DNA sequence: AAACACTGCAACCGCCCCAGG
DNA sequence: TCCTGGGGCGGTTGCAGTGTT
């Protein structure tokens, strides 16, 4: 038993003597995988005993769900996933498992870790609470549009590459944007949030080969784009721009009750939000972005620098 | 090269809910 | 109705790897 395991608080001393804690070994992983392959999952306490594992049922369940499950996706959180996490978190807060449902292959633990390590770090840099309205607004009107920008940039690069090698490929003026359980397209001709969604061009694939930023394998994205559209009314009949967390549940029933119309919210809510919270930073930052592009033209993968800029602006103005 | 600091993430905990007896 | 065990969830911890001094 590892030292951390020994140090952990445990009220049940008998269990503490019998049960193993700490990092899993390859042998244990093998036992768990083989047992589940034969007998299926569930009844984790008895599963642990029957599989010959000296682990708690909870430990087995966690190991399986967060690590051993075949469909667990590993690697960097992509820009699209970041965007989706920010959006969903703004809606649901720390409902990690619920958020994870909309990111296939990602576990609630992974999303939670991403939030704590990345998002909270940025909040700290901005010297504001991660749950404050200020930081939420920063995410909504700065960070998320910036992610969209970066996705669009990568997408444009991909399209350019495609154009160079194929015929009939339209240049993109849109990119995907996350909204609840869907990826939508975002028309970037006007380079500002709150525009009407455009039509996702199926040529707008981003691949690890042609992208200059860390992105998911192309199969992931094509899955997003090629899934049928559950809400023709909303999307005016366009297809191929929606994403479903569970391909077995494709259909209108997948739309959550609190379906989030991103474009309408942005159009209508900004003035109300500004009035409600006496926001004036949005105009400032939006003006700065459109006049000098200083906020948007910074290097990719340099969020720290970007947030430093935000921090400096905050320090100068007392707001954004 | 060593010491220290930072970061990412696997793993654990306590709490809660729910189904079944 | 109450009790109990299983399972799920969000929060927390601490190790290992990496970067910095």
Structural description of this entry:
The longest helix has 33 residues. A two-stranded antiparallel sheet has the order 1-2. α4 crosses α5 and α6 runs antiparallel to α9. With 320 residues, the chain is mostly helical. It has two domains: 66 residues, Arc Repressor Mutant, subunit A, CATH 1.10.10.60; 184 residues, no CATH class. It has 13 helices and two strands. The termini are far apart. Helix content is 52%, strand content 4%. The protein binds a DNA duplex (21 and 21 nucleotides) through α1, α4, α5 and α8.
How is this structure best summarized?
The protein has 13 helices and two strands. Strands 1-2 form a two-stranded antiparallel sheet.
Summary tags:
13 helices; Arc Repressor Mutant, subunit A; two-stranded antiparallel sheet; elongated; 320 residues; mainly alpha; disordered N terminus
Chart the SSEs and their pairings.
Layout: H1 3-7, H2 13-18, H3 26-39, H4 44-50, H5 57-68, H6 79-92, H7 96-100, H8 108-125, H9 133-165, E1 174-179, E2 182-187, H10 218-226, H11 262-277, H12 281-292, H13 303-317
Antiparallel strand pairs: 1-2
This protein binds a DNA duplex (21 and 21 nucleotides) through α1, α4, α5 and α8.
Biggest sheet statistics: 2 strands, antiparallel
| E-strand count | 2
Task: Specify the number of helices.
Answer: 13
Q: Compute the number of structural domains.
A: 2
Taken in chain order, the helices and strands follow as HHHHHHHHHEEHHHH
Distance between the termini: 51 Å
Subcellular location: Nucleus
Keywords: DNA-binding, Nucleus, Repeat, Transcription, Transcription regulation
Main location: nucleus
Pfam families: Myb_DNA-binding
